[in-house]
Amino acid sequence: MPEQYYIVKKEVVPEIYSKVIDAKKLIQSGTARSINEAVQMVGISRGAFYKYKDSIYLESEVSKKSIVTLSLLLQHIPGVLSNLLNIIAEWKGNILTINQNIPINDIANATVTFEYNPQDMDLDRLICAIKKVDGIIEVNIIGRQ
Length: 145
What we know:
This protein is an alpha+beta fold. It folds into 2 domains: about 10-60; about 65-145, Alpha-Beta Plaits (2-Layer Sandwich). About 35% of the residues lie in helices and about 25% in strands. The chain is built from 6 helices and 4 strands. The chain has helices at about 15-30, 35-40, 45-50, 60, 80-90, 125-130; strands spanning about 65-75, 95-100, 105-115, 135-145. A 4-stranded antiparallel sheet has the order 2-3-1-4, with helices on one face. It is elongated and about 65 Å long.
C-alpha cells in the first residue's frame, strides 16, 4: 500500500515542522551551504531536523512524478497496443515513449515508458491489470526512476 499523506494548513502544524521545511528550502535554494548552517539560521537543532526531515514535505515535493519503462511481449492482433495505452491512461499515466518492433512469429517486442504520480497509482496493481489484457503475453519492469 502506498504511503498516505495529508494536506494540513501551516497554521495548525507545530512550529518545529515549519522550521524543518524552512531549513530544507534554505538548503535547496543554496542560501545555506550545509544542514548545520540551515538549522542555525532557522533556530532548530540538527537532531530535530534529522528526526522530521523525511516526514514533512511541501506539497510540491510529494507530487513529483516517477518514470517507469515496461518491456512487453504482444501478440500480433489488432488493438493490443491500443488497449495497453488506454489502461495506462485510465490509471493516470502519461506516455513518454513507445517502441514496438516488427512481429516475428506473430509476437512483437515493445517498450513503453510513462510517468506517473506514485500517490495516485499503485504500480503493482497497474501491472496486474496490464497482464489481464488479451494479447499481452509478458510484462516486465526494466527501468524505474
